[in-house]
Structure formats: C-alpha cells, structure tokens
Amino acid sequence: MKNKILKPKKAQISLEFSFLFFAILLASIITISHFLSQNFSKDDKVINDVENAAKTAVILANSGYNGTNPNVTLIYGGISWSDNKKNIYIYISPKPYITPEIKNFIVGYIYNTTKINQSEYNITINP
C-alpha cells in the first residue's frame, strides 16, 4: 500500500488564514488605539471640535444666518490656545467689522455645537 500524503483541504486553509488575519487585525487596532490614547488628550479633541465649529460659524455669519449681517466677508484666520488648552482664541478678520452680535453668535454657536463646558473652556474672538 502506498503512503498517501495528506493535503489540507481548501476550506481548512481558508479558515486558518481567517484566524491569522483576525489576529493581525486585532493587534493593529490595539496598537493604534494605544498610540492615540497616549498622544492625544481630551483637550486636543475639544480644540479640534472648536476649530471645526468656528469655521462653520464664520460661514453661517457670512451668509446672514440668524440675523447676522457683517456687511463684509469675514475670514477665518485660525485658532490658538493657552498652554493648559483651556483658553482658546479664534482669529477672524477684518476686525473692525466684527460686532458684538457677531462675536456672540460665533461663540454661542461653538458652545452649542461642541457641547463643551463653558466654565472649563474660555473662547475669545480676536483677542
């Protein structure tokens, strides 16, 4: 009787590959999650959310949303923050055309959209 060499079935190879792929995928997700949690804090996420909301608020103000009427096109100039990331400064130009109503609209929109704590984070327009 001849010795038969047993060959693995195609389904068995596919199953083994699936387990190997799953293990690699799981290890990758854990590594990425660990990296992000070590390098980015809650404050970093808040600053990102505030910046996105500020850009949207300037666009809305330019379009006359909620009764805002800047009479010129406002330009979002950027964002900066203090060392502890609790004071956030938003730069909009041209400064002479930014009325208190427009400032209040933009700051209110940011707080309402991001749902951040107003007593913890202070947002200032054109310091």
Architecture overview:
This protein is of the alpha+beta class and 127 residues long. It has two domains: 8-39; 42-125, GMP Synthetase, Chain A, domain 3 (2-Layer Sandwich). Helix content is 52%, strand content 14%. The protein has helices spanning 10-39, 42-62, 100-114, and strands at 75-81, 87-93, 122-125. A three-stranded mixed β-sheet has the order 1-2-3, covered by helices on one side. Strand 2 (87-93), helix 3 (100-114) and strand 3 form a beta-alpha-beta unit. Helix 2 (42-62) packs across helix 3. It is elongated and about 95 Å long. The termini are far apart. The mean pLDDT is 88.
What is the CATH top level name of the largest domain? Alpha Beta
CATH architecture of the largest domain: 2-Layer Sandwich
Q: Helices and strands, in N-to-C order?
A: HHEEHE
State the total count of DSSP E strands. Answer: 3
Please summarize the sheet with the most strands.
3 strands, mixed
Terminus-to-terminus distance:
92 Å
Derived structural class: alpha+beta
How do the strands line up in the largest sheet?
1-2-3
Helix content percent band: 40-55%
Gross geometry: elongated
Q: Compute the CA-based radius of gyration.
A: 26 Å
